[in-house]
Design brief:
By secondary structure, the chain is α/β, with parallel strands linked by helices. The protein is built from 9 helices and 5 strands, in the order βαβααααββαααβα. The protein has helices at residues 14-23, 31-38, 44-53, 66-74, 77-104, 136-147, 151-159, 164-170, 181-197; strands at 2-8, 27-30, 109-113, 129-133, 173-176.
């Protein structure tokens, strides 16, 4: 069984890469999905977030309005760190639980997909790490088109993460996603074969 990390900067195409790796047979554990799971109403993390940020972040059905919460924490670094201190340890614990579960089921290659992989120092216990990267202009354009963000919001989002330059230094494999989907698939296939052949 091989355990691999997958990360990328915001809007670099990490989810697309994860989807292609899943088609090739990789078992994906998605940190974003785990994050949604741990904040369901009634969960410990849900209660702590409500205590920290108030009931105004809740929808009528008591679920957390992620968009409202996201806007709050992106404008306030202290608030973001508070949220991360509540969610990140729980996401990691659940991820490790899922890894053991998939390994017990006989999975060959398990891929842990997380946006803040290096920021949360997951690379210190999980290697190798694949980074999905692109050039700065492409990243900004995708953020603008995908999330309809203005320049100030784009800057805030990029500032909240480690730069792609720093991430490149820490990654074991880099997939450059500046071109077509075909070019992306070709790179992934080459890397997949390399991973399968490695001991």
């Amino acid at each position: 069984m091989k355990l691999i990390g997958l990360t990328g900067g915001i809007a670099t195409g990490k989810s697309t890469v994860a989807s292609i790796l899943r088609q090739l047979g990789g078992k994906i554990i998605d940190a974003d999905e785990l994050a949604r799971e741990i904040v369901q109403p009634g969960q410990e993390a849900w209660q702590e977030i409500v205590d920290a940020f108030g009931k105004e972040i809740l929808r009528e059905d008591k679920t957390i309005d992620r968009e409202k919460l996201r806007k709050t924490v992106f404008q306030d670094e202290k608030a973001r760190k508070r949220l991360e201190s509540i969610t990140h340890p729980r996401i990691r614990a659940l991820a490790q639980q899922r890894m053991h579960q998939l390994a017990a089921e006989g999975a060959d290659i398990i891929i842990y997909e997380a946006p803040l992989f290096f920021e949360n120092e997951v690379h210190l216990w999980l290697r190798p790490v694949i980074l999905v990267a692109c050039d700065s202009a492409t990243q900004r354009q995708r953020l603008q088109e995908r999330d309809r963000l203005n320049e100030k919001e784009i800057h805030q989002h990029l500032k909240a993460q480690m730069t792609l330059e720093e991430k490149r230094k820490l990654a074991d494999f880099i997939i450059e996603n500046n071109g077509s989907l075909e070019e992306l698939k070709r790179q992934i296939l080459q890397l997949w074969q390399k991973i399968q052949q490695s001991s």
